[in-house]
Amino acid sequence: MKAIIPAAGLGTRFLPATKCTPKELLPVLDKPVIQYVVEEALEPSGVDEVVIVNSHEKPQMEAYFSPDPKFEDYLRAHGKDALAQKVHQAGELPVSFVYQDEPRGLGHAVWCAAQKVGDQPFLVLLGDYFVPDRQMCVRMQEVSQQHGGASVIAVAPVPADQVSRYGIIAGECVGSYGDSGATGEQEGAVWRVTGLVEKPAPEDAPSRLFIVGRYLLSPRIMDLLATQGKGAGGEIQLTDSMERLLEEEQMYALVVDPDEGCDTGTPAAWAATNARLALRDPQMAAAFKEALGDEVKLG
Ligand code: UTP
């Protein structure tokens, strides 16, 4: 199975930092955001390659995942073996690149990787959000297996006045993940999806469940994306083709806790993600708290 990471966007919410540095390469602790996403993508069984959809304006991304033996030799020669190993690991990951000529929307970005995925189901992981324990896509795979290999998306409840920022599902709860017994909007509930709408007005939203940024999709979606017209915001929307897919195939949604993952798409979200992970990191937590001093009382 392949996993696609769309990462060709402009990152406008993070300007001016993203003027010269792709937002996917911004660091969280000592690694770029996208490396967390790649490592998460490789966790589900059967993922053998991660396809990053990149922009020609962001050549640094491909450079980051390329081997750099000369630099590794330099680090080893200076007694920095552990750092050389980290540099080596980034160049060893099974990552390949396709290019989106301009940011025409998430649907178009996914379609750019069509030849790579061929006729197999595939995962899509947004490039500015990652799940540290890497288990969300694993659970989605299990739900898919329980429903004959159907497409599965991760969703989570959002306050009613914020639905217009997201892709929202319509559907009904049909069960739960594992033995959680979850129902409705509870974490672990499984819904059969009957409709999808991108950025609805609150009065038009069919539910409060938004798509979190993790998709396990049938390859048929690529045929539909090939003919998909522009939707909300003048962009080619993945949700519009998923809506068309529903006319032919079943689709399920797994309710997750969005805080299980870390957003890095805005300066505030990125700062919070760094703080959360620094506090969890045994080697960093003490120094981080000390550096903050009395500015905040951290538990
Ligand atoms: P976002 O909308 O969060 O990213 O898309 P963006 O457009 O870069 O950011 P803002 O809104 O301007 O701040 C989610 C993911 O989809 C990718 C982005 O790179 C991001 O990782 N994307 C989006 C593409 O690859 N191509 C597109 O045309 C749009």
> Helical proportion?
25-40%
Structural class: alpha/beta
Bound molecules: uridine 5'-triphosphate
- Total count of helical runs of at least 4 residues: 11
Strand content: 15-25%
Query: How are helices and strands ordered from N to C?
Result: EEEHEHHHEHHEEHEEEEHHEEHH
Query: Main β-sheet, in a few words?
Result: 9 strands, mixed
Characterization of the model:
- Helices cover 31% and strands 23% of the residues.
- The model has no long low-confidence stretch (mean pLDDT 95).
- By secondary structure, the chain is α/β, with parallel strands linked by helices.
- The longest helix is centred in the C-terminal third of the chain and has 14 residues, at 267-280.
- A hairpin with a 2-residue loop joins strand 2 and strand 3 (31-32).
- A nine-stranded mixed β-sheet has the order 5-4-1-6-11-8-12-10-9. Strands 2-3 form a two-stranded antiparallel ribbon.
- Helix 3 packs antiparallel against helix 4, helix 8 packs across helix 9 (238-245) and helix 10 (267-280) packs across helix 11.
- Uridine 5'-triphosphate binds at residues 6-14, 53, 100, 103-106, 108-109, 126-128, 265.
- Uridine 5'-triphosphate binds next to helix 5.
